Automatic annotation (TrEMBL):
The keyword Coiled coil applies. The keyword Metal-binding does not apply. Residues 124-151 form a coiled coil. This is Large ribosomal subunit protein mL59 domain-containing protein. InterPro entries: Ribosomal_mL59, Ribosomal_mL59_dom. It holds the Pfam family Mitoc_mL59. It comes from Wallemia mellicola. The lineage of its organism: Eukaryota, Fungi, Dikarya, Basidiomycota, Wallemiomycotina. Residues 18-48 are annotated as: Disordered.
Length: 158
């Protein structure tokens, strides 16, 4: 008895005649998610991405990459590319990107910094302004303290 794939996992336009005539061509890719037509639930791929990567590596080494279905780990360009058609040029100088990259250079968003780092320039400006006026503030404080002391001291010595 031949295996026919579950009708729920095939495209809606698939007919029974197509399944019987060429069942291998209509089998869903084991590397991709598929949706059940009856329940609407998504089924995970048969092979995880790590397993897909291992299969693609092995197939690339053996030269059998064209037999695997396309997936995230292997593209159509990889399948069409034959390693023997593009020999490695040993005389050519390797062009590597040798610029030092910070950990945040990879991210597209700029690092905002912590709250204290963002508020630091304002705080420094306020501190400098206060330090410039410090002598006046000290004088004002001393005079105010003397006035408060005179105000609260009784006129009589006892």
């Amino acid at each position: 008895m031949r295996y026919t794939p579950n009708k729920d996992l095939l495209p809606a336009s698939t007919t029974i005649e197509q399944i019987q005539s060429n069942p291998d061509a209509l089998r869903p890719s084991p590397f991709q998610f598929r949706q059940s037509k009856s329940t609407g639930k998504w089924h995970p791929p048969r092979y995880s991405r790590r397993q897909q990567a291992d299969l693609v590596k092995e197939a690339r080494i053996e030269g059998l990459l064209h037999l695997l279905p396309t997936s995230i780990k292997s593209s159509v360009d990889d399948i069409n590319l034959n390693n023997s058609e593009k020999p490695f040029n040993w005389q050519e100088k390797a062009a590597f990107d040798v610029q030092a990259k910070s950990p945040r250079a990879v991210a597209e968003k700029k690092f905002r910094g912590s709250l204290w780092e963002r508020n630091q320039p304002k705080r420094q400006a306020a501190i400098e302004e206060n330090m410039e006026n410090m002598q006046q503030k000290i004088e004002f404080w001393k005079l105010d303290k003397e006035q408060r002391k005179k105000k609260h001291t009784p006129p009589l010595p006892f």
